[in-house]
Design brief:
The chain has 10 helices and no strands. The protein has helices at residues 2-29, 40-49, 51-85, 87-100, 105-116, 120-144, 148-156, 161-196, 204-213, 217-258. The longest helix is centred in the last third of the chain and has 42 residues, at 217-258.
């Protein structure tokens, strides 16, 4: 089973390398200008040469994305708990949450600058809004997927609604919550870059804007590859946390049953 998973991951990496080779050959064969579409070797060379100057931009984006992800995820999980425990609130608020997702963040961002200025607050709001909804939906699905038989068993034992939530519904919903977190983690990097377009002094979004305005397309692609790498890194971290926490929770459940 492990070899099969490793083979699939290797196949994905091989496909990525093939795409880069096709890109490299196409640029050479069709003599495409570097300002229009640089070759992968030119992009990686520029990334290597500019890495020292990119570190400040990189850490600024990482800090912003992590902080926004934490705020958006906590608010999303808290909202999901409220909607789950209070059905009337859910019937009233949940449709409004769905409607709110039809507002493009790129359109809302300038309004946030007008309302809150060019400081940290509008940037965090942008990232939190991007990360908020996936966690809400995933958490609600997790709470709803708790088997009815288990709920009935808890009720027969005289468990209160609070005890059912903390000891049954929440542990059962952890895989769903982490699914929402993985989506939000990848969105957080995109949200951080968009928020940096609002007037930040440092960040990958700022670096990309400066590169685009000076027709340094190679640097634009460097920024794109950094964004992709950060998204994969965030996804991997959440996946690792999921394996640790969910497996620990299952071991706890098994030990309780055996005892």
């Amino acid at each position: 089973m492990i070899r099969k998973k490793g083979w699939k991951k290797g196949l994905s990496f091989f496909l990525f390398v093939v795409l880069l080779l096709v890109w490299e050959v196409a640029v050479k064969v069709f003599s495409i200008e570097a300002w229009l579409l640089p070759s992968p070797t030119a992009v990686f060379k520029e990334g290597f040469l500019a890495f020292g100057g990119l570190q400040g931009h990189l850490w600024a984006t990482v800090r912003l994305a992590v902080l926004g992800l934490a705020i958006g995820s906590l608010l999303g999980w808290g909202m999901a708990v409220i909607l789950h425990l209070f059905p009337l609130v859910k019937e009233t608020v949940y449709p409004l949450l769905i409607l709110s997702q039809n507002v493009p963040i790129i359109v809302l961002a300038p309004l946030l600058v007008i309302w809150f200025g060019f400081g940290l607050l509008p940037k965090l709001i942008v990232i939190a809004l991007v990360c908020f909804f996936p966690v809400v939906v995933a958490s609600l699905d997790g709470f709803r997927q708790t088997p009815y038989e288990w709920k009935h068993y808890f009720e027969m034992m005289g468990a209160t609604k609070k005890q059912q939530f903390w000891k049954l519904e929440l542990p059962n919903s952890l895989p769903f919550i982490f699914s929402g977190l993985k989506i939000s983690a990848t969105y957080s990097v995109m949200g951080a870059v968009i928020s940096e377009w609002l007037g930040a002094k440092t960040g990958i979004g700022v670096y990309m804007t400066l590169a685009s305005s000076s027709f340094r397309t190679d640097r634009v692609f460097v920024a794109i590859f950094i964004i992709m790498s950060l998204s994969l890194l965030f996804f991997a971290v959440i996946t690792f946390m999921e394996r640790m926490i969910v497996s620990w929770n299952r071991k706890e459940d098994i030990s309780r049953v055996n005892n």
